[in-house]
Predict the structure.
Amino acid sequence: MKSTLYVKCPKCGETGLIKEIQGKYLCAVCNFDYTTLKDEPVKLDEMLVSNLKMGPMGQIMALTMHELITIMPTMESIQYVKDLAAKNGIKLPDQKKGFFSRLFGKG
Ligand SMILES: [Zn+2]
């Protein structure tokens, strides 16, 4: 998958392109390594929440980044991010058939 992900970076605060280099996901602005968040669940949640608050594109980025960082199975990953959004009072789009399957290229 060619990276066209734009994520709000927890280090530099910019919404920057994610560079994928040798299995790592780096902020194109400051080279922050998102894969390090796998070992820092609190910071990972903060990063996800700040992206979830940015609207539909940010929500897609949060879902995508969570799965890439944690390497959880897709459905578990989606459920985690949905629960996180709900806990923070963020409403995700209705789970119409096709929304998530388009997102992950399944179905
Ligand atoms: Zn950055």
The pocket of zinc ion is lined by residues 9, 11-12, 14, 16, 27, 29-30, 32 (CB under 6 Å).
